[in-house]
Specification:
This protein is α/β, with parallel strands linked by helices.
Length: about 210
């Protein structure tokens, strides 16, 4: 269930070309972003899966990648019996627009480790993803030994990350060719009342010419 927490975080944002020119250490590159609102639902804390799915799909489109390139998803995931299945339904809807593959993307939520930081929840999620990229490791979500019985994860693109494991670049076969893709993550942050945001972040590559650095 929902456990509140308190926290603060900050990142320095720069155009990638400027960060590279300045010799900065780049932790990650923001490829795409999207925000929307769930509109009217049956309650103030009741999410809209169509709106959540749409915000993810638009962020992927803005990033210029398809869902199969995403190897980690930092979910809003508050551990609630109502909200989490709705969030997964929206994610499945968004990912299904470009792939029917299942069980290829790790998923987790930093809220299981530090609680729900309310206004700082989004920056906490971004920080977790950037640190995972830096160390090339996926950290476990806690209290996930027993999964939500209302979510059939085996029929989704997602696998709940329950152990510490290497974060390896995915290898995808396309047109008979096997390609190694950069580490790429999606980050969802949803506010009570219906505000939805999603960010696509990719590991920094040696040669890059667009996007914003963090």
């Amino acid at each position: 269930g929902y456990v509140p927490g308190e926290g603060v975080g900050a990142v320095l944002l720069k155009p990638l070309s400027r960060a590279l020119a300045d010799g900065d250490h780049v932790y990650g590159v923001i490829l795409g972003t999207s925000i929307n609102h769930g509109g009217k639902t049956t309650g103030y804390t009741v999410p809209n899966p169509q709106a959540q799915g749409h915000v993810v799909a638009v962020a992927l489109q803005d990033a210029g990648i398809d869902a199969r390139a995403v190897s980690y998803l930092e979910a809003h995931g508050t551990g609630t019996s109502l909200g989490d299945p709705i969030e997964i339904a929206g994610l499945v809807q968004a990912f299904a627009q470009s792939t029917a593959d299942t069980q290829f993307c790790a998923i987790g939520s930093v809220k299981s480790n530090i609680g729900h930081l309310e206004g700082a929840a989004g920056i906490a999620s971004l920080t977790k993803v950037l640190l995972q990229m830096r160390h090339r490791q996926l950290v476990p979500s806690l209290h996930a030994e027993e999964l939500n019985p209302h979510i059939a994860f085996e029929r989704t693109p997602f696998v709940v990350q329950r152990t510490l494991a290497p974060w390896s670049r995915p290898r995808v076969v396309h047109d008979g060719q096997t390609r190694e893709l950069p580490l790429t993550a999606g980050i969802s942050s949803f506010g009570a009342g219906g505000t939805n945001a999603h960010v696509i972040v990719q590991e920094p590559l040696v040669v890059a010419s667009s996007g914003a650095a963090t």
